[in-house]
Amino acid sequence: MKAKRIIPIAIVVVLLSGIYFYMNPLLPIITGYSAKNLASGVFVAGRSQESMEKEDLNFSFIKYNHNKIDPVKKEVRSTFLWKTSTAVYVDGLGCSLVNDVKKKEMLTRPFHPVEILAANPDTIPWPMGDLVSDTIPAGVNTEKLDAALAQAFLDTIPFKGTFAVTVVYKGQIIAEKYRSDMNPSTKFLSWSMAKSFTNALIGILSKEGKIDINKPVGFKEWQNDERKNITINNLMQMNSGLEWNEDYGNSSDVNNMLHKEGDMGKFTIEKPLLFPIDSVWNYSSGSTNIVSLIIRKTIGNDAEYYALPRESLFNKIGMRSTVWEVDASGTFVGSSYIYATMRDYARFGLLYLNNGNWLGEQILPESWVDYTRTEANGSDGKYGAFFWLNKSGVFYPDVPRDMYCCRGHNGQYIYIIPSKELVVVRTGFSKKGTFDLNRFLSSIVNSVD
After folding, report:
1. DSSP secondary-structure letter at 434?
2. Strand 188-189 and strand 361-362: pairing?
3. Tens of pLDDT along 66-123?
4. For 330, phi and psi rounded to 5 degrees?
5. What CA–CA distance (Å, rounded) separates 266 from 220?
6. Exposed (0-12), middle (13-18) or buried (19+): which is 341, by Cβ within 10 Å?
7. What is the pLDDT at residue 109?
8. What is the structure's pLDDT at 1?
9. What is the torsional sign of CA 178, 157, 168, 412?
10. Cis bond upstream, residue 309 (ω within 30)
11. pLDDT of 406
12. Which of 66, 80, 67 is nearest to 38 (CA)?
């Protein structure tokens, strides 16, 4: 009789042990994802907890978190089972998970706000301001354009989850549409579109002679093996050869980096070489955060480093709303975490459409956009340097092959199509297979000459 009782108890112990060992490494990702994104959604983007939990956090284990917001301390605590993660807001630097670094240190960074362009943008003509011309450029079929935008907001598969769309043609905004609970002042999360902004900072530093993208980066951790030959160019083209797993669905490198690590660049630097350098294309958010760390080390002064994006980029092109978040160690999360309005994202697209020139000022090196659009070895025509390409036409068969874009998780895009003089920005929350990007973009392309 006792033996019969022992067997079920042993089975229960084995099952509980299995659950523990399966869930334990996942829990910081589950709670960290919820805490970080809810904190940024509330304190940076100005959305409500209800809105975030209903949509952005309503999937997989994430939806089972218990989330508590402290509006005074400006922090969020998310708990699931036996794990709690905390994210805190730091003025000017957005929200970060409290990992490996004490909260007090995170709250006392040497950040000195750079004055955002002071003049009222409503009185300044687009693109430096928000005074948009009522005149539609010649060559626009408004009926087709209106139909394309209406289709994008159907909110049923295959057009599900759109937050906002902005279309710029021949330098002018010709269409804007927002979901009813969002508006032109709403800040939207970039996810991996941030990689393209990291591209811009490297371009600016390259123009100033402070960085050579073809020179080995020289980390001391890499000096005793082949990693010593990795360049910034290799990192930007995603063919550094470093081991990396970008699968967002499990305890992968990218999930561990974003949700468990206080210093994301350092985490990736420690990865071993898996392939010969410049031979295999392997998409890696870690590579971008190494580049972000290189930028910080190059500047060498944190106050100047935190001022760099606004002084050298955002203020130059009228991006008043933009917030670039840092990890717990204080390095910009170059892979994933920018918040900006639709018009600010459109301005960034215009900078690249105009070959890095903004109203006569050459912000980026004159050849930088050509470099950006150069096919990375091993990418089969789909990737350049922190930008996606359409040379193969695999993802966008009905869109001009010269299209290139900033692309972010769950449906964030800045499309740049030089042959059509088009910039199209689309934000939303669209899981894989729920939004037909080719039909969406081609319908806009077909609405202009």
Report:
1. S
2. unpaired
3. 999 999 999 999 999 999 999 999 999 999 999 999 999 999 888 777 888 877 899 9
4. 100, 10
5. 12
6. buried
7. 85
8. 45
9. positive
10. no
11. 98
12. 67
What phi and psi values does residue 239 have, to the nearest 5 degrees? -130, 40
- 388-389 and 361-362 as β-strands: parallel, antiparallel, unpaired? unpaired
Tell me how long the chain is: 449
Structural domains in the chain?
A: 2-90 (no CATH), 168-445 (3.40.710.10)
Residue given tokens 């080719």 in the structure block:
438
CA–CA dist 320, 415 (Å, integer): 21
DSSP 234: H
Q: What's this model's pTM, rounded to 2 decimal places?
A: 0.95
For CA atoms 24, 25, 26, 29, the dihedral sign is: positive
Q: Taking the mean position of all CA atoms in its chain, how far away is CA 340?
A: 11
Q: Which structure tokens are listed for 142?
A: 């408004």
How is the beta sheet containing 75-80 ordered, strand by strand? 66-70, 75-80, 83-90, 94-97
Distance between CA atoms of residues 365 and 201, nearest Å: 11
How far is it, in rounded angstroms, from Cα 262 to Cα 106? Answer: 10
Please list the ranges in the chain whose pLDDT falls under 70: 1-7, 16-21
Do 49 and 42 form a contact (C-beta atoms < 8 A)? yes
Contact status, residue 254 vs residue 300, Cβ threshold 8 Å = no
Structure tokens at 89: 């807001």
Q: Residue 375 and residue 417: Cα distance in Å, rounded?
A: 16
Q: Which two structure tokens, joined as six digits, stand for 28?
A: 């910081």
Asked if residue 114 lies in contact with residue 92, where contact means CB atoms within 8 angstroms, the answer is no
Closest listed residue to residue 251, CA positions, set 49, 21, 421, 74 = 21
The candidate with the shortest Cα–Cα distance to 65, out of 53, 51, 79, is: 79
State pLDDT tens for residues 324-368: 999 999 999 999 999 999 999 999 999 999 999 999 999 999 999
Residues 6+ apart with CB under 8 A from 101: 262, 328, 329
The CA-based diameter of the chain, rounded to the nearest angstrom, is 89
- Residue 327 CA, chain-centre distance (Å), reads 13
Asked whether the beta carbons of 145 and 444 are under 8 A apart, the reply is yes
CA–CA gap between residue 342 and residue 415 (Å, rounded): 12
Residues 405, 394 contacting (CB under 8 angstroms): no
